[in-house]
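ugh ok fine here u go
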Amino acid sequence: MILSSFGLSLHNQSDTNKLQIMASIFKSSIGKKLIMSVSGICLILFLTFHMVMNLTYVFDQESVVYGTICEILSMGWVNVVVPVLAALFVVHIVYAFILTIGNLRARGEQRYAVPNKAKTDSWSARNMFVLGLIVLLGIGLHLVNFWSKMQLQNWLGGAEADPYVLMENILGKWWYLCLYIIWFAALWFHLTHGFWSALQTLGWNNQIWFKRWKWIGFIYVTLLILGFIVVAIYAYCKANGCFA
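structure:
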């Protein structure tokens, strides 16, 4: 109901007051949660695209589709998309930190304003900030292992690493595979709560759809993370000759 209430309050105000209300979105608790929700949904959509792209590495035995996608991602338009994605990550992380500190100060260990929290809270909801930190560390690891050797090199005019070789060289090591699976597990916990929490913030939280969105989010995020895990295990097996 947060988004609905926000829209109703704008409708009943003068133009001057509307500007003041819009300006306050970055300061109010409601506005911060709204920004968190929108940025989070955008990042989930990006992860979905990333997972589908990675799955082509598994099912495209000739590696034609995966290679084509990697070439497309090295084109000029990506120079616009990457900063936007980076901005979304930064905004999401900054507002998560601000909300967490604010909630800890105001309500102890409670971090999200959820009706009947004692009944609906979960382990992931209580540990969203810690899970977020693990996810952030995983992103840093992934950027160092892949982005810095591919897209960044393209920006700098250097030679890009072969994506197939890179996948197998990195994920072919068992300790890297374990680190990535731990990262994916933290991401699963983070997203299963974040998915329905974002939709709740946007107003889709009536008694019927609240439970439905939790199940939809659970299934969607589980399939998303399983896709990443399948790719990682496939790269490990391929690098170590399991298919020979």
